[in-house]
Design a protein that fits this description.
Glutaredoxin; two-stranded antiparallel ribbon; 6 strands; about 10% strand
């Protein structure tokens, strides 16, 4: 079959994105005969948060509102139940800071650079999810981000210098704006071949089936016929 290009749009403070990222990896294992090229793209659930972050519990209560507290608790219960099967532990009660994720997105972008080790972008996203949801650490902290970069085989000193600058801030914002113009309103979002979208933490088999269909259509030249 033909290869398939996928843009996975996510935010590392979104618990559904971590679940979706896990399902995505499982989906690829279900279709080993399809070459899948994945690029992680940025999305900010709330870009207005200050660089220092905000107290997590107070922020979530204010953002959700009293009327939605019941639905929020139900969502947490679902995530905490679904997480272990996907190899995830959500420690929501331990989280103290809701960070601004711009620097985390810059780091994910650099991890996807040709100069970074192969697979670094996927490992970086996974490490940021672990740091935030399992270890309850502040992924807005630049020292922690440099440490995460080193864990993923990147040059921590270079990352530290880049984080201290405005490198790629405009590029990340541009990608977020592009996703919005394409209709992305929530994450995770799987953009397949730039024209088909799967939104939400879809099950692995659902994602794998979409890959099979698109790969087959691409191999038959049907996608080209629609251009």
């Amino acid at each position: 079959m033909a290869s398939v290009n996928v843009d996975l749009v996510l935010d590392p403070v979104c618990p559904w994105c971590w679940l979706g990222h896990r399902y995505w990896r499982s989906a690829q294992a279900l279709v080993p005969h399809i070459a899948v090229e994945t690029v992680l793209r940025p999305f900010q659930l709330d870009g207005s948060i200050p660089k220092a972050g905000l107290p997590y519990q107070a922020y979530m209560k204010a953002r959700i509102g009293e009327d939605a507290q019941g639905r929020f608790k139900a969502m947490r219960a679902h995530l905490e139940a679904a997480g272990p099967e996907a190899g995830i532990v959500f420690n929501f009660d331990e989280i103290t800071i809701r960070p601004n994720t711009m620097d985390a997105h810059r780091l994910i972008r650099w991890a996807g650079s040709p100069k970074s080790p192969p697979g670094a972008q996927d490992r970086m996203a996974r490490r940021l999810f672990e740091l935030y949801f399992e270890e309850a650490r502040d992924i807005g902290d630049r020292a922690l981000l440099a440490e995460a970069a080193a864990d993923c085989g990147m040059d921590a000193a270079l990352v530290t210098a880049l984080l201290a600058s405005n490198a790629d801030v405009d590029a990340v914002r541009g990608e977020i704006d592009t996703a919005a113009r394409m209709g992305v309103r929530g994450v995770p979002c799987f953009l397949i071949e730039g024209r088909y979208a799967l939104v939400g933490a879809q099950e692995a088999e659902t994602i794998a089936d979409a890959l099979r269909q698109v790969a087959g259509a691409k191999a038959r030249g049907e996608l080209d016929a629609r251009d």
